Protein backbone atom coordinates (compact mmCIF):
# COMPACT_ATOMS: atom_id res chain seq x y z
CA UNK A 1 0.00 0.00 0.00
CA UNK A 2 2.90 2.32 -0.77
CA UNK A 3 2.07 6.05 -0.92
CA UNK A 4 -1.52 5.45 0.00
CA UNK A 5 -2.61 7.27 3.12
CA UNK A 6 -6.15 6.22 4.05
CA UNK A 7 -6.49 9.09 6.53
CA UNK A 8 -5.75 11.66 3.82
CA UNK A 9 -8.26 9.89 1.62
CA UNK A 10 -10.88 10.19 4.38
CA UNK A 11 -10.10 13.89 4.84
CA UNK A 12 -10.53 14.62 1.14
CA UNK A 13 -14.05 13.20 1.17
CA UNK A 14 -14.85 14.93 4.47
CA UNK A 15 -13.76 18.31 3.07
CA UNK A 16 -15.90 17.80 -0.02
CA UNK A 17 -18.90 16.96 2.15
CA UNK A 18 -18.33 20.08 4.23
CA UNK A 19 -18.08 22.17 1.09
CA UNK A 20 -21.42 20.93 -0.27
CA UNK A 21 -22.99 21.65 3.13
CA UNK A 22 -21.57 25.16 2.99
CA UNK A 23 -19.51 24.68 6.18
CA UNK A 24 -16.55 26.91 6.86
CA UNK A 25 -13.40 25.13 7.99
CA UNK A 26 -13.82 26.27 11.58
CA UNK A 27 -17.32 24.70 11.68
CA UNK A 28 -15.90 21.20 11.41
CA UNK A 29 -12.12 21.51 11.81
CA UNK A 30 -12.22 19.41 15.00
CA UNK A 31 -13.56 16.40 13.03
CA UNK A 32 -10.38 16.44 10.91
CA UNK A 33 -8.25 15.42 13.92
CA UNK A 34 -8.49 12.35 16.15
CA UNK A 35 -9.17 13.23 19.79
CA UNK A 36 -6.65 10.73 21.11
CA UNK A 37 -4.03 8.39 19.65
CA UNK A 38 -2.32 5.80 21.78
CA UNK A 39 0.63 3.69 20.63
CA UNK A 40 1.73 0.87 22.90
CA UNK A 41 4.48 -1.74 22.95
CA UNK A 42 3.49 -5.20 24.08
CA UNK A 43 6.30 -7.56 25.13
CA UNK A 44 5.31 -11.22 24.93
CA UNK A 45 7.14 -14.36 26.00
CA UNK A 46 6.75 -16.72 23.04
CA UNK A 47 6.20 -20.46 23.51
CA UNK A 48 9.86 -21.23 22.80
CA UNK A 49 10.98 -18.85 25.55
CA UNK A 50 12.19 -15.85 23.53
CA UNK A 51 10.64 -12.40 23.92
CA UNK A 52 9.00 -10.41 21.13
CA UNK A 53 7.68 -6.87 21.33
CA UNK A 54 4.61 -5.99 19.27
CA UNK A 55 3.28 -2.52 18.42
CA UNK A 56 -0.36 -1.81 19.17
CA UNK A 57 -2.63 1.16 18.58
CA UNK A 58 -5.92 2.52 19.81
CA UNK A 59 -7.21 5.70 18.22
CA UNK A 60 -10.28 7.49 19.55
CA UNK A 61 -11.31 9.73 16.71
CA UNK A 62 -14.38 11.26 18.32
CA UNK A 63 -16.49 11.07 21.47
CA UNK A 64 -18.85 13.87 20.43
CA UNK A 65 -21.88 11.57 20.16
CA UNK A 66 -20.97 9.10 22.92
CA UNK A 67 -18.37 6.54 23.96
CA UNK A 68 -15.73 5.81 21.34
CA UNK A 69 -16.52 2.55 19.51
CA UNK A 70 -14.87 0.34 16.93
CA UNK A 71 -13.09 -2.91 16.26
CA UNK A 72 -9.58 -4.22 16.77
CA UNK A 73 -7.54 -5.58 13.89
CA UNK A 74 -4.57 -7.95 14.07
CA UNK A 75 -2.64 -7.56 10.83
CA UNK A 76 1.04 -7.43 9.78
CA UNK A 77 0.46 -4.14 7.91
CA UNK A 78 -1.49 -2.40 10.63
CA UNK A 79 -0.06 1.05 11.39
CA UNK A 80 -0.99 4.48 12.84
CA UNK A 81 -2.42 5.85 9.60
CA UNK A 82 -4.56 2.84 8.92
CA UNK A 83 -5.95 2.77 12.46
CA UNK A 84 -6.51 6.53 12.39
CA UNK A 85 -8.54 6.27 9.18
CA UNK A 86 -10.48 3.28 10.44
CA UNK A 87 -11.30 5.21 13.64
CA UNK A 88 -12.57 8.21 11.66
CA UNK A 89 -14.69 5.95 9.47
CA UNK A 90 -16.22 4.60 12.71
CA UNK A 91 -17.21 8.14 13.76
CA UNK A 92 -18.89 8.62 10.39
CA UNK A 93 -20.50 5.18 10.42
CA UNK A 94 -21.84 5.43 13.96
CA UNK A 95 -23.39 8.80 13.15
CA UNK A 96 -25.04 7.36 10.03
CA UNK A 97 -26.36 4.42 12.06
CA UNK A 98 -27.60 7.03 14.54
CA UNK A 99 -26.28 5.09 17.52
CA UNK A 100 -24.95 6.89 20.60
CA UNK A 101 -21.25 6.44 19.94
CA UNK A 102 -18.24 8.31 18.68
CA UNK A 103 -15.60 6.42 16.73
CA UNK A 104 -12.45 4.44 17.54
CA UNK A 105 -10.35 1.63 16.17
CA UNK A 106 -7.47 -0.48 17.39
CA UNK A 107 -4.79 -2.60 15.85
CA UNK A 108 -1.81 -4.77 16.59
CA UNK A 109 0.92 -5.13 13.99
CA UNK A 110 1.16 -8.91 13.91
CA UNK A 111 0.42 -11.89 11.70
CA UNK A 112 -1.82 -13.85 14.07
CA UNK A 113 -1.62 -16.93 11.86
CA UNK A 114 2.00 -17.31 13.00
CA UNK A 115 1.10 -17.36 16.72
CA UNK A 116 -0.06 -20.30 18.81
CA UNK A 117 -3.38 -19.95 20.65
CA UNK A 118 -1.49 -19.33 23.92
CA UNK A 119 0.68 -16.63 22.34
CA UNK A 120 -2.41 -14.99 20.87
CA UNK A 121 -4.07 -14.95 24.27
CA UNK A 122 -0.97 -13.45 25.95
CA UNK A 123 -0.74 -10.80 23.23
CA UNK A 124 -4.42 -9.89 23.58
CA UNK A 125 -4.20 -9.64 27.35
CA UNK A 126 -0.98 -7.61 27.10
CA UNK A 127 -2.70 -5.19 24.74
CA UNK A 128 -5.65 -4.78 27.14
CA UNK A 129 -3.27 -4.01 30.02
CA UNK A 130 -1.74 -1.24 27.91
CA UNK A 131 -5.00 0.34 26.70
CA UNK A 132 -6.88 -0.26 29.97
CA UNK A 133 -6.82 3.41 31.11
CA UNK A 134 -8.75 4.56 28.05
CA UNK A 135 -11.35 1.80 27.54
CA UNK A 136 -14.55 1.03 29.45
CA UNK A 137 -18.29 0.58 28.80
CA UNK A 138 -18.82 4.36 28.84
CA UNK A 139 -15.42 5.34 27.45
CA UNK A 140 -14.37 3.19 24.54
CA UNK A 141 -15.80 -0.18 23.52
CA UNK A 142 -13.73 -2.45 21.21
CA UNK A 143 -15.12 -5.20 18.96
CA UNK A 144 -13.87 -7.66 16.31
CA UNK A 145 -12.38 -6.65 12.97
CA UNK A 146 -9.92 -8.33 10.59
CA UNK A 147 -8.32 -11.45 12.12
CA UNK A 148 -10.02 -11.03 15.49
CA UNK A 149 -13.02 -13.00 16.72
CA UNK A 150 -15.31 -13.83 19.63
CA UNK A 151 -12.64 -15.72 21.56
CA UNK A 152 -10.35 -12.69 21.46
CA UNK A 153 -13.23 -10.48 22.66
CA UNK A 154 -13.82 -12.89 25.57
CA UNK A 155 -10.14 -12.58 26.59
CA UNK A 156 -10.48 -8.78 26.43
CA UNK A 157 -13.55 -8.84 28.68
CA UNK A 158 -11.82 -11.22 31.10
CA UNK A 159 -8.61 -9.18 31.31
CA UNK A 160 -10.63 -6.02 31.84
CA UNK A 161 -12.53 -7.76 34.66
CA UNK A 162 -9.24 -8.80 36.28
CA UNK A 163 -7.90 -5.24 36.14
CA UNK A 164 -11.10 -3.45 37.21
CA UNK A 165 -12.22 -6.02 39.77
CA UNK A 166 -15.68 -6.41 38.25
CA UNK A 167 -17.24 -8.26 35.34
CA UNK A 168 -18.46 -5.63 32.88
CA UNK A 169 -19.45 -7.34 29.64
CA UNK A 170 -20.33 -3.98 28.03
CA UNK A 171 -16.61 -3.13 27.77
CA UNK A 172 -16.35 -5.08 24.51
CA UNK A 173 -18.79 -6.46 21.94
CA UNK A 174 -18.75 -9.37 19.52
CA UNK A 175 -18.32 -11.74 22.46
CA UNK A 176 -19.37 -15.40 22.39
CA UNK A 177 -22.82 -16.11 23.88
CA UNK A 178 -21.31 -17.71 27.00
CA UNK A 179 -19.68 -14.40 27.95
CA UNK A 180 -22.58 -12.01 27.33
CA UNK A 181 -22.59 -12.01 23.55
CA UNK A 182 -25.77 -11.53 21.59
CA UNK A 183 -27.64 -13.80 19.24
CA UNK A 184 -27.25 -12.28 15.78
CA UNK A 185 -24.02 -10.28 16.26
CA UNK A 186 -21.80 -12.72 14.40
CA UNK A 187 -24.00 -12.40 11.31
CA UNK A 188 -24.90 -8.71 11.78
CA UNK A 189 -22.47 -7.13 9.30
CA UNK A 190 -23.30 -9.59 6.53
CA UNK A 191 -27.03 -9.43 7.24
CA UNK A 192 -26.90 -5.64 7.23
CA UNK A 193 -25.21 -5.76 3.82
CA UNK A 194 -28.03 -7.97 2.55
CA UNK A 195 -30.59 -5.44 3.82
CA UNK A 196 -28.67 -2.66 2.06
CA UNK A 197 -28.68 -4.56 -1.22
CA UNK A 198 -32.39 -5.31 -0.84
CA UNK A 199 -33.17 -1.63 -0.35
CA UNK A 200 -31.06 -0.75 -3.39
CA UNK A 201 -32.99 -3.35 -5.41
CA UNK A 202 -36.27 -1.87 -4.27
CA UNK A 203 -35.24 1.64 -5.26
CA UNK A 204 -33.94 0.46 -8.64
CA UNK A 205 -36.80 -1.93 -9.42
CA UNK A 206 -34.50 -4.95 -9.51
CA UNK A 207 -35.23 -8.48 -8.34
CA UNK A 208 -32.42 -9.68 -6.07
CA UNK A 209 -32.90 -13.20 -7.47
CA UNK A 210 -31.70 -12.01 -10.87
CA UNK A 211 -28.42 -10.55 -9.62
CA UNK A 212 -25.01 -12.06 -10.23
CA UNK A 213 -22.07 -11.25 -7.96
CA UNK A 214 -18.32 -11.51 -7.43
CA UNK A 215 -16.91 -11.31 -3.91
CA UNK A 216 -13.48 -10.32 -2.58
CA UNK A 217 -12.80 -11.64 0.94
CA UNK A 218 -14.38 -14.64 2.65
CA UNK A 219 -13.93 -13.90 6.34
CA UNK A 220 -16.70 -12.88 8.73
CA UNK A 221 -18.15 -10.18 6.48
CA UNK A 222 -17.62 -11.84 3.10
CA UNK A 223 -18.68 -15.37 4.01
CA UNK A 224 -21.80 -14.47 6.02
CA UNK A 225 -22.78 -11.76 3.53
CA UNK A 226 -22.30 -14.12 0.57
CA UNK A 227 -24.21 -16.92 2.28
CA UNK A 228 -27.21 -14.74 3.15
CA UNK A 229 -27.33 -13.14 -0.32
CA UNK A 230 -27.00 -16.56 -1.96
CA UNK A 231 -29.91 -17.78 0.18
CA UNK A 232 -31.99 -14.88 -1.19
CA UNK A 233 -31.22 -15.99 -4.74
CA UNK A 234 -28.12 -14.01 -5.77
CA UNK A 235 -25.92 -16.07 -8.11
CA UNK A 236 -22.33 -15.76 -6.89
CA UNK A 237 -19.97 -16.84 -9.64
CA UNK A 238 -16.62 -15.73 -8.22
CA UNK A 239 -15.00 -15.53 -4.78
CA UNK A 240 -11.44 -14.52 -3.99
CA UNK A 241 -9.60 -14.71 -0.69
CA UNK A 242 -5.89 -14.42 0.03
CA UNK A 243 -5.32 -17.98 -1.25
CA UNK A 244 -6.94 -17.73 -4.66
CA UNK A 245 -9.99 -16.92 -6.73
CA UNK A 246 -12.67 -19.54 -7.34
CA UNK A 247 -14.99 -19.24 -10.33
CA UNK A 248 -18.01 -21.21 -11.44
CA UNK A 249 -20.11 -19.60 -14.20
CA UNK A 250 -23.15 -21.58 -13.05
CA UNK A 251 -22.82 -20.24 -9.51
CA UNK A 252 -20.52 -21.40 -6.71
CA UNK A 253 -21.80 -23.69 -3.97
CA UNK A 254 -21.74 -21.02 -1.26
CA UNK A 255 -23.07 -23.29 1.48
CA UNK A 256 -20.22 -25.75 0.86
CA UNK A 257 -17.66 -22.93 0.76
CA UNK A 258 -19.02 -21.48 4.00
CA UNK A 259 -18.79 -24.82 5.80
CA UNK A 260 -15.33 -25.46 4.36
CA UNK A 261 -13.95 -22.05 5.38
CA UNK A 262 -15.35 -22.35 8.90
CA UNK A 263 -13.72 -25.71 9.41
CA UNK A 264 -10.39 -24.55 7.89
CA UNK A 265 -9.59 -21.49 9.99
CA UNK A 266 -11.80 -19.23 7.82
CA UNK A 267 -9.68 -20.03 4.80
CA UNK A 268 -10.66 -21.44 1.38
CA UNK A 269 -7.19 -22.91 0.79
CA UNK A 270 -7.64 -26.39 -0.69
CA UNK A 271 -11.33 -25.95 -1.52
CA UNK A 272 -12.52 -27.80 -4.61
CA UNK A 273 -15.91 -27.99 -6.31
CA UNK A 274 -17.10 -29.72 -9.47
CA UNK A 275 -17.48 -27.13 -12.22
CA UNK A 276 -15.39 -24.53 -10.40
CA UNK A 277 -11.92 -23.48 -11.47
CA UNK A 278 -9.22 -21.33 -9.91
CA UNK A 279 -8.67 -18.19 -11.98
CA UNK A 280 -5.95 -15.52 -11.61
CA UNK A 281 -6.70 -13.06 -8.76
CA UNK A 282 -6.29 -10.25 -11.28
CA UNK A 283 -9.52 -11.40 -12.98
CA UNK A 284 -11.71 -10.97 -9.93
CA UNK A 285 -12.61 -7.32 -10.49
CA UNK A 286 -13.16 -7.75 -14.22
CA UNK A 287 -15.96 -10.27 -13.81
CA UNK A 288 -19.04 -9.49 -15.86
CA UNK A 289 -21.44 -9.47 -12.92
CA UNK A 290 -24.15 -7.15 -11.57
CA UNK A 291 -22.52 -6.59 -8.19
CA UNK A 292 -18.94 -6.51 -6.97
CA UNK A 293 -19.01 -7.19 -3.22
CA UNK A 294 -15.84 -5.95 -1.51
CA UNK A 295 -15.18 -7.71 1.82
CA UNK A 296 -11.40 -7.78 2.37
CA UNK A 297 -9.27 -4.71 3.00
CA UNK A 298 -8.92 -1.02 2.08
CA UNK A 299 -7.31 0.38 -1.09
CA UNK A 300 -8.34 -2.51 -3.35
CA UNK A 301 -10.12 -0.43 -5.99
CA UNK A 302 -7.57 2.22 -6.85
CA UNK A 303 -5.90 3.92 -9.82
CA UNK A 304 -4.35 0.65 -10.99
CA UNK A 305 -7.39 -1.59 -10.65
CA UNK A 306 -10.44 0.63 -11.19
CA UNK A 307 -10.55 0.28 -14.97
CA UNK A 308 -11.01 -3.46 -14.66
CA UNK A 309 -14.39 -3.13 -12.98
CA UNK A 310 -17.30 -4.14 -15.20
CA UNK A 311 -20.01 -4.45 -12.54
CA UNK A 312 -22.45 -1.51 -12.47
CA UNK A 313 -22.74 -1.74 -8.66
CA UNK A 314 -20.11 -1.99 -5.92
CA UNK A 315 -21.24 -3.08 -2.47
CA UNK A 316 -18.65 -2.15 0.17
CA UNK A 317 -18.52 -4.57 3.09
CA UNK A 318 -14.86 -3.79 3.78
CA UNK A 319 -13.84 -0.44 5.19
CA UNK A 320 -12.20 1.86 2.66
CA UNK A 321 -11.89 -0.55 -0.30
CA UNK A 322 -12.24 2.31 -2.81
CA UNK A 323 -9.81 5.22 -3.05
CA UNK A 324 -11.01 8.68 -3.92
CA UNK A 325 -9.46 8.42 -7.36
CA UNK A 326 -11.38 5.23 -8.08
CA UNK A 327 -14.55 6.76 -6.64
CA UNK A 328 -14.32 9.68 -9.06
CA UNK A 329 -13.72 7.27 -11.94
CA UNK A 330 -16.74 5.15 -10.97
CA UNK A 331 -18.94 8.22 -10.74
CA UNK A 332 -17.86 9.27 -14.22
CA UNK A 333 -18.54 5.80 -15.58
CA UNK A 334 -21.95 5.57 -13.91
CA UNK A 335 -20.85 2.74 -11.60
CA UNK A 336 -22.78 3.12 -8.37
CA UNK A 337 -21.01 2.55 -5.04
CA UNK A 338 -22.90 1.63 -1.87
CA UNK A 339 -20.29 2.93 0.56
CA UNK A 340 -18.79 1.17 3.58
CA UNK A 341 -19.95 3.76 6.12
CA UNK A 342 -23.58 3.11 5.18
CA UNK A 343 -23.59 -0.49 3.93
CA UNK A 344 -21.53 -2.23 6.63
CA UNK A 345 -22.99 -0.30 9.56
CA UNK A 346 -24.85 -3.49 10.56
CA UNK A 347 -21.76 -4.70 12.42
CA UNK A 348 -21.59 -1.81 14.82
CA UNK A 349 -25.36 -1.47 15.08
CA UNK A 350 -25.34 -5.13 16.08
CA UNK A 351 -22.61 -4.34 18.61
CA UNK A 352 -24.74 -1.53 20.00
CA UNK A 353 -27.59 -4.02 20.46
CA UNK A 354 -25.22 -6.33 22.35
CA UNK A 355 -24.03 -3.45 24.55
CA UNK A 356 -27.64 -2.44 25.31
CA UNK A 357 -28.42 -6.01 26.36
CA UNK A 358 -25.27 -6.16 28.51
CA UNK A 359 -26.22 -2.92 30.24
CA UNK A 360 -29.84 -3.88 30.89
CA UNK A 361 -29.13 -7.55 31.61
CA UNK A 362 -32.10 -8.49 29.43
CA UNK A 363 -31.36 -10.61 26.37
CA UNK A 364 -33.31 -10.60 23.11
CA UNK A 365 -34.27 -13.40 20.75
CA UNK A 366 -32.46 -13.59 17.42
CA UNK A 367 -35.70 -12.64 15.63
CA UNK A 368 -36.01 -9.46 17.74
CA UNK A 369 -32.37 -8.62 17.06
CA UNK A 370 -32.69 -9.09 13.29
CA UNK A 371 -35.92 -7.14 13.12
CA UNK A 372 -34.31 -4.16 14.90
CA UNK A 373 -31.24 -4.47 12.70
CA UNK A 374 -33.37 -4.35 9.56
CA UNK A 375 -35.14 -1.22 10.82
CA UNK A 376 -31.84 0.52 11.61
CA UNK A 377 -30.32 -0.41 8.25
CA UNK A 378 -33.36 0.91 6.46
CA UNK A 379 -33.26 4.19 8.38
CA UNK A 380 -29.56 4.66 7.64
CA UNK A 381 -30.14 4.04 3.94
CA UNK A 382 -33.15 6.37 3.75
CA UNK A 383 -31.37 9.17 5.63
CA UNK A 384 -28.41 8.98 3.26
CA UNK A 385 -30.69 8.63 0.24
CA UNK A 386 -32.64 11.77 1.14
CA UNK A 387 -29.44 13.85 1.08
CA UNK A 388 -28.22 12.13 -2.09
CA UNK A 389 -31.42 13.10 -3.87
CA UNK A 390 -31.53 16.60 -2.44
CA UNK A 391 -27.95 17.53 -3.36
CA UNK A 392 -27.51 15.26 -6.42
CA UNK A 393 -24.35 13.70 -4.99
CA UNK A 394 -23.05 10.14 -4.67
CA UNK A 395 -24.09 7.85 -1.83
CA UNK A 396 -20.66 8.31 -0.28
CA UNK A 397 -20.75 12.07 -0.28
CA UNK A 398 -24.32 12.06 1.04
CA UNK A 399 -23.26 9.65 3.80
CA UNK A 400 -20.36 11.88 4.87
CA UNK A 401 -22.65 14.92 4.79
CA UNK A 402 -25.18 13.23 7.04
CA UNK A 403 -22.50 12.15 9.49
CA UNK A 404 -20.86 15.55 9.51
CA UNK A 405 -24.17 17.26 10.28
CA UNK A 406 -24.82 14.89 13.19
CA UNK A 407 -21.33 15.07 14.68
CA UNK A 408 -21.09 18.85 14.36
CA UNK A 409 -24.54 19.29 15.92
CA UNK A 410 -23.63 17.06 18.88
CA UNK A 411 -20.31 18.78 19.43
CA UNK A 412 -21.82 22.26 19.19
CA UNK A 413 -24.72 21.41 21.46
CA UNK A 414 -22.37 19.99 24.07
CA UNK A 415 -20.42 23.19 23.72
CA UNK A 416 -17.02 21.90 24.63
CA UNK A 417 -15.18 23.68 21.88
CA UNK A 418 -12.48 25.86 23.39
N1 LIG B 1 -16.16 -7.89 11.43
C1 LIG B 1 -16.99 -6.87 11.40
O1 LIG B 1 -17.99 -6.83 12.13
C2 LIG B 1 -16.79 -5.75 10.43
C3 LIG B 1 -15.74 -5.75 9.52
N2 LIG B 1 -15.68 -4.77 8.58
C4 LIG B 1 -14.64 -4.72 7.57
O2 LIG B 1 -14.83 -5.81 6.65
C5 LIG B 1 -13.56 -6.23 6.12
C6 LIG B 1 -13.35 -7.70 6.39
O3 LIG B 1 -13.42 -7.89 7.81
P1 LIG B 1 -13.71 -9.32 8.47
O4 LIG B 1 -14.53 -10.13 7.55
O5 LIG B 1 -14.18 -9.05 9.83
O6 LIG B 1 -12.23 -9.88 8.54
P2 LIG B 1 -11.74 -11.41 8.45
O7 LIG B 1 -10.38 -11.41 9.00
O8 LIG B 1 -12.76 -12.31 9.02
O9 LIG B 1 -11.69 -11.66 6.86
C7 LIG B 1 -10.90 -10.93 5.97
C8 LIG B 1 -10.95 -11.66 4.64
O10 LIG B 1 -10.25 -10.94 3.63
C9 LIG B 1 -9.33 -11.83 2.98
N3 LIG B 1 -8.25 -11.05 2.43
C10 LIG B 1 -7.28 -10.34 3.07
N4 LIG B 1 -6.49 -9.74 2.19
C11 LIG B 1 -6.95 -10.07 0.96
C12 LIG B 1 -6.56 -9.79 -0.36
N5 LIG B 1 -5.51 -9.00 -0.61
N6 LIG B 1 -7.28 -10.33 -1.39
C13 LIG B 1 -8.33 -11.12 -1.15
N7 LIG B 1 -8.76 -11.42 0.08
C14 LIG B 1 -8.08 -10.92 1.11
C15 LIG B 1 -8.91 -12.77 4.08
O11 LIG B 1 -8.31 -13.95 3.57
P3 LIG B 1 -7.43 -14.87 4.62
O12 LIG B 1 -8.32 -15.13 5.79
O13 LIG B 1 -7.14 -16.10 3.84
O14 LIG B 1 -6.25 -14.01 5.00
C16 LIG B 1 -10.30 -13.03 4.68
O15 LIG B 1 -11.04 -13.92 3.85
C17 LIG B 1 -12.53 -5.31 6.77
O16 LIG B 1 -12.33 -4.18 5.95
C18 LIG B 1 -13.21 -4.87 8.07
O17 LIG B 1 -12.71 -3.68 8.58
C19 LIG B 1 -16.64 -3.79 8.50
C20 LIG B 1 -17.68 -3.76 9.39
C21 LIG B 1 -17.79 -4.69 10.47
O1 LIG C 1 -18.80 -3.62 16.12
C1 LIG C 1 -18.10 -2.64 16.30
O2 LIG C 1 -18.05 -1.99 17.33
C2 LIG C 1 -17.20 -2.15 15.21
C3 LIG C 1 -17.07 -3.06 14.02
C4 LIG C 1 -16.06 -2.45 13.12
O3 LIG C 1 -14.88 -2.42 13.46
C5 LIG C 1 -16.46 -1.80 11.90
O4 LIG C 1 -17.64 -1.54 11.71
O5 LIG C 1 -15.58 -1.49 11.08
In short:
The chain is 44% helix and 16% strand. With 418 residues, the protein is of the alpha/beta class. The strands form three sheets. Strands 10-9-8-7-11-12-13 form a seven-stranded mixed beta sheet, with helices on both faces. A four-stranded mixed beta sheet has the order 1-2-5-4.
Shape: globular
Biggest beta-sheet profile: 7 strands, mixed
CATH domain class name of the domain at 186-338:
Alpha Beta
- In spatial order, strands of the major sheet run 10-9-8-7-11-12-13
Structural class: alpha/beta
**Number of strand segments:** 13
Helix content: 40-55%
What's the pLDDT, averaged over the residues? 97
The CATH architecture designation of the domain at 186-338 is 3-Layer(aba) Sandwich
Q: What is the number of helices?
A: 13
CATH superfamily of the domain at 186-338: NAD(P)-binding Rossmann-like Domain
Describe the structure.
With 418 residues, this protein is of the alpha/beta class. Among the domains are: 35-168, Rossmann fold (3-Layer(aba) Sandwich), CATH 3.40.50; 186-338, Rossmann fold (3-Layer(aba) Sandwich). The protein contains 13 helices and 13 strands. The strands form three sheets. The chain has a seven-stranded mixed sheet with strand order 10-9-8-7-11-12-13, with helices on both faces. A four-stranded mixed sheet has the order 1-2-5-4. A two-stranded parallel ribbon has the order 3-6. A hairpin with a 5-residue loop joins strand 1 and strand 2. Helix 6 (185-203) crosses helix 7 and helix 6 crosses helix 12. Bound molecules: NADPH dihydro-nicotinamide-adenine-dinucleotide phosphate and 2-oxoglutaric acid. 2-oxoglutaric acid is lined by residues 69-71, 93, 143, 145, 173-174, 319, 344, 347-348, 351.
Amino acid sequence: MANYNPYENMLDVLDKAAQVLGYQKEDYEFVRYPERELTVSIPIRMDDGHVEVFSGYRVQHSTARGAAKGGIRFHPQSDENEVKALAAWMTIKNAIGNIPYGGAKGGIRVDPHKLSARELERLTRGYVRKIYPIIGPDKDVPAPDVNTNGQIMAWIADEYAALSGSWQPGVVTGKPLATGGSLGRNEATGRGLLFTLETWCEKNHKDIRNLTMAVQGFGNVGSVGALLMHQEGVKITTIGDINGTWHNPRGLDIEAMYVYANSHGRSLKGYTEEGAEIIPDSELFSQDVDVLFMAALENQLNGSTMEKVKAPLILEGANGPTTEEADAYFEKKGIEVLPDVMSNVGGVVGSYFEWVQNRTGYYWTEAEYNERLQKKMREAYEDVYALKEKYHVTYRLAAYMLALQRVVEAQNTRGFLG
